[in-house]
UniProtKB/TrEMBL annotation:
Gene label: trpC
Pathway membership, UniProt: Amino-acid biosynthesis; L-tryptophan biosynthesis; L-tryptophan from chorismate: step 4/5
Name of the protein in question: indole-3-glycerol-phosphate synthase
Assigned keywords, A-Z: Amino-acid biosynthesis, Aromatic amino acid biosynthesis, Decarboxylase, Lyase, Tryptophan biosynthesis
Classification lineage: Bacteria, Bacillati, Actinomycetota, Actinomycetes, Micrococcales
GO molecular function, one term: phosphoribosylanthranilate isomerase activity
Family: Belongs to the TrpC family.
Domain Indole-3-glycerol phosphate synthase: residue ranges: 2-245
């Protein structure tokens, strides 16, 4: 499944590239206001931080919410105390788009993450041109040499890569990159199985000073407490925020 998702995102990016060549998108990326300081926004503090996701659907959970106005949802996330907004831009299974990211960027002043299956520099330039401050890089999707190149490329644009791992080996590869922001996804993107305890098993491998994000499978405040107790600095939450009142839900998490 992960291979198909990556192939689909790359194919969609190639089609966009026919219309907007890399030079055009690069010029847009370079004339944007500088990317925001993500490590500052997510710096460990006395409560858990939340990366709140604009998520309409997923291959494992199907349709979650309509979200006609992603900018309105993102504004609620900011009002509720989220530290970062994640916008799924994958079109085929997650029903997102770069247009969603652009409208969210205009509506909030906190950092914005482009959440997609990224395997090409062009997608990173598009993200910056649309105003993203972070990009997701999924360790399982890429050989290490490409991961190094894409990680460097994003950093040269002033962006912060969120490097996603789903096993002890993948965490080791993320650490090898010199990543300052590592996410452990409870969901296996190949089988869609959930393992909420994975974060706790691998958290100690992440060096002090690196921000630790627990991704997926937060359905209520007890799950946030579970991740916090295991050492998470931040949680990345989609489904629970798009299917409940976002402000009230965020406020309950921020008490953890
Ligand atoms: O809806 P949830 O279970 O709260 O999960 C959010 C987020 O972690 C999930 O959307 C995600 C994590 N890593 C990804 C990689 C690609 C697509 C989606 C994801």
């Amino acid at each position: 499944m992960l291979e198909q998702l990556l192939a689909g995102s790359l194919e969609d990016a190639r089609a966009r590239r026919e219309l907007a060549p890399i030079e055009t998108v690069e010029a847009e990326a370079l004339t944007r206001a500088p990317a925001l300081d993500v490590l500052e926004a997510l710096a460990p503090t006395d409560h858990i931080r939340v990366i709140a996701e604009v998520k309409r659907a997923s291959p494992s959970r199907g349709d979650l919410a309509e979200i006609a106005e992603p900018q309105a949802l993102a504004a609620k996330y900011e009002a509720g105390g989220a530290s970062v907004v994640s916008v799924l831009t994958e079109e085929r299974k997650f029903k997102g788009s770069l247009a969603d990211l652009e409208s969210v960027r205009k509506a909030v002043s906190i950092p914005v993450l482009r959440k997609d299956f990224i395997g090409d520099e062009y997608q990173i330039l598009e993200a910056r041109a649309a105003g993203a401050d972070l990009v997701l890089l999924i360790v399982a999707a890429l050989p290490q040499d490409r991961l190094v190149q894409l990680h460097d490329f994003a950093r040269e644009l002033g962006m912060t890569p969120l490097v996603e791992a789903h096993s002890a080996d993948e965490v080791a590869r993320a650490v090898d990159l010199g990543s300052q922001l590592i996410g452990v996804n409870a969901r296996d993107l190949r089988t869609f199985e959930l393992d909420r305890d994975l974060f706790g098993r691998v958290a100690d491998q992440i060096p002090a000073g690196v921000i630790r994000v627990a991704e997926s499978a937060v359905l209520d405040v007890a799950d946030v407490e579970h991740y916090r107790a295991a050492g998470a600095d931040a949680v990345l939450v989609g489904e629970a925020l798009v299917t409940n009142d976002p402000i009230a839900t965020l406020k309950s998490y921020l008490s953890v």
